Amino acid sequence: MIDEHFAGGTSPIHALDPRYRLAACLLLSLVAALARTPQTPLLILGAGLVLTVLSGVSAKLVLRRAAAVNLFIIFLWLFLPVSTPGMPLWQGLGLTVTREGVALAGLVTLKANAVFLCVLSLMGTIPAPALGRALTALGAPAKFSFLFVFTYRYLHVIAEEYGRLVTAARLRGFVPATDGRTYRTYAALVAMVLVRSYDRSQRVYQAMLLRGFTGVFPCLDRFAAGRRDVLFLGCVVALAAGAVWIEWLAGRGNV
Amino acid sequence: MHISEGVLSGPVLAGGWALAAVGTTLGLKRLDYDRLMTVAMLSAAFFVASLIHVPIGPVSAHLILNGLLGAILGLAAFPAICVALLLQAVLFQYGGLIVLGANTFDMAFPAVLCSLVFGPWLRRTGTVRSVGAFCCGFFAVLLAALLTATALALSGEAFMTTAWAIFLAHLPIMVVEGVITAMAVGFLAKVRPELLSIRLAE
């Protein structure tokens, strides 16, 4: 149900310090998301593509994820070209497709995919426990990281538990349809998952207390940033600065 | 109900982050470590529940259940939803870090508001409880759809039609969410009534 194909690996991207990867992802996403001209996200998209290739994840999987992410973008393409006022490109069926509308939809598509590739190659390649610690290192509250790491830890356990309940329902002849019985069954399934999660959380916390938990996790796997990490982040900062500069030039109509 | 990255304008993204940060900080402040574990586990349970696709006529929609989440978690719904959305970004690359704030606020604020308004009804019995639970599920999705549409509409006039389309598409989902929330609360009241009154962060 939930699998992570990107987190494990031996690529140059996986070897980078998670804190640096997270910071780089944040910076590139920010520049791409705030862009107003197509040149800037195009540059980040190129960088994201290079990073994705470097991270060595399967192309088939990347395409499948990209398809899911672009569903919302396709939805936007249905409306934006005809709902944006501007110069008409095509008229028919009582609708007017405008040049500005197509440009806006194109810009959104570029931005969304640029951020998608950065998140996939830089954040998707960090195992969740390391990401939790990287978040704390970058200033997120410790409790937030605790929440993140444990939600992740029990995601799979609870998904399995839900799977068992669904199997049990199916064995008893449950076929989903649009009727009261289906909704009642799903409601009971959800509520049962909640009850079991609640009970499990009590047991787990008691077990943690028994082992002397005081709110801190002593961790053996320490982050150690090397020259390569600094060089990588330097390149990313330079790229982001370049993208901002292009944005500024394009904004003045020089490109 | 996610807005993907690259759609919203700078001020809307910044506003979303500011509001989400306030909510998440408040939620975390009211939680100590012996409750955090429960919130983490329930957040995982809601993540799993959001992967359930329920048939609505010829199509199917996935459950959101932010109303039920708010009813159980109260203010802790903010950090719980923020974490669940962050995990969706990490595991499925739905959305990114920049739009996370707006998406968190869009879903968590209605959850908290509904728990404040309808929460007391859930601790009663019979019809009042069912009606309260239905309202919780119904209005949490209604408000979330409204906030999502507003975020889009504020990002530019061109998004107005899309905003309307998103709101209308959520109308049948509101009813289904209301019904399922009412039934789930009925089930919880029978099986584990204390879950409806733990009020993790109030």
TrEMBL record, chain A:
It comes from Solidesulfovibrio aerotolerans. It comes from the Bacteria. GO terms for cellular component: ATP-binding cassette (ABC) transporter complex. InterPro entries: ABC/ECF_trnsptr_transmembrane (IPR003339), ECF_CbiQ (IPR012809), ECF_transporter_component (IPR051611). The chain crosses the membrane at residues 42-63, 69-90, 102-123, 230-250. The gene is cbiQ. GO terms for biological process: cobalt ion transport. Keywords: Cell membrane, Membrane, Transmembrane, Transmembrane helix. Coiled coil: none annotated. It is a multi-pass membrane protein. This is Cobalt ECF transporter T component CbiQ. It is found in: Cell membrane. Its main location: membrane. It holds the Pfam family CbiQ.
Automatic annotation (TrEMBL), chain B:
It is found in: Cell membrane. The keyword RNA-binding does not apply. GO terms for cellular component: plasma membrane. This is Cobalt transporter CbiM. The keyword Magnesium does not apply. It is a multi-pass membrane protein. InterPro entries: CbiM/NikMN. Keywords: Cell membrane, Membrane, Transmembrane, Transmembrane helix, Transport. GO terms for biological process: transition metal ion transport. The chain crosses the membrane at residues 36-56, 68-91, 97-119, 131-154, 166-189. Pfam families: CbiM.
